[in-house]
């Protein structure tokens, strides 16, 4: 029997216990709020009549904070669509419920720290892009699922899921140690899923895009770059485009990820901080571990490198190309393309140069195609791994173009398009396709950088527009503010959510709280003085004085004071940005 998870549930909250009732079964999961014990029993009226009852659609898991564990449940969902008749759901709202009924047993510092940790969990849960299915494994590609045995498909969903893409894996650890609870254990994907119903030549088919964000080196834009010692890279995403026509399914898989070397790019108030390539760590080791795993998973790696070949990005280009050359592997190829230089002055048609250079690789790697009778007509035996500095804006544009070329070949092969007919010939479908990939770009950019993607006007319309340039400017400004003054908190929140940092219940008793780190005096004094200087400068400008020369002198004095203070703040920028605190606390603990 195929595995599935209960998603039609009632949560009954009693002062002593949580009762999770499966409505399509007689199973009842009981969580003791005092001993934390979890038991599975037959539902025989154990639920107290006084319990508070609410409908839930799944359990995200349990997180342990200072006060007690907290149960995280899904309270609102919306249907995305169906894949092979399996419904796919997006999480719209959640609730975090404490086991303890009071925090009076904590001291003041503990209460504040617990409150901050709770805000972090809620911050991550508020982020859009959580998806699940109770009957379909969203974490695997079509080709991987086809290559499995019939026995594998009977395993519980959480056991057979690709753990790289199970974002609540850490939260589920309270349940996974008890195999009998498997129908309550719901793997949740983070990224983007969309199902579109399309028509071309009066032939209906589905177009599906699934982007799976990896949780192993999760984080935000500037605080998570490069590769770790195991070879996991920042902002790693596997994106699969699926075409489903009359039960014939085609799939094309691409990946993206930060340059797989040991490097960092910490915010320091500069618009583009300079990347720092580590000289203390063995670059080739992490690089090789990354590609060893990628080759096993996907086959030959065609690395599309879109970094600038001038300026600070060029150092990464040279280091990346050297690492590929030193690997001496026939399964690793790099194609560098200076996106910004080639497409400067809105010359976006020059992307065709890159597409021409990748045409042979794409023809060789192919795509996965399974016929309606279950026979496999084609397999994809290689993958494009695309990167820019963030693996967002430039990467999104190129991935959508590669996916488009693959889709055109698939539609021709299954008979939706005739030989020689192009997607461009069908404006209604082209509109759906472009917006689907632009929405994917926006979702991934918001999750990593805090704003929608740049350059999506090209993805949506096929050309650059003045409005698009203005929106890029707006999003760039918002990114600057978030990356410098908010992302330390976001990084801490993600580390807590995925289990990179484990809260010690004894925190803030006999040792300092990790979230309460002292700041330099300049952190408080300089911004305050800058505010006063700017205010005085404007006051002197706006209020007329009897002696205009004295007024000018005051304006110059306060203006120079403002400029000098700004220069000091900018020069010492790293002291004024919002930095993660839990990473340092974990390092000290170890």
From TrEMBL:
Q: What is its EC number?
A: 3.1.3.64
**What top-tier enzyme class does this entry carry?**
hydrolase
GO CC annotations? endoplasmic reticulum
- Which Pfam families does the UniProt entry name for this protein? Syja_N
Q: Name one GO molecular function term.
A: phosphatidylinositol-3-phosphate phosphatase activity
GO biological process annotations for this chain's record? phosphatidylinositol dephosphorylation
Q: Which domain of life is it from?
A: Eukaryota
All residue ranges annotated as the SAC domain in the record: 121-450
Q: What is this protein called?
A: Phosphatidylinositol-3-phosphatase SAC1
InterPro entries registered for this protein in UniProt = SAC_dom
Q: Which UniProt keywords apply?
A: Membrane, Transmembrane, Transmembrane helix
Q: Which reaction does it catalyse?
A: a 1,2-diacyl-sn-glycero-3-phospho-(1D-myo-inositol-3-phosphate) + H2O = a 1,2-diacyl-sn-glycero-3-phospho-(1D-myo-inositol) + phosphate; a 1,2-diacyl-sn-glycero-3-phospho-(1D-myo-inositol 4-phosphate) + H2O = a 1,2-diacyl-sn-glycero-3-phospho-(1D-myo-inositol) + phosphate
Q: Which residues cross the membrane?
A: 525-546, 552-571
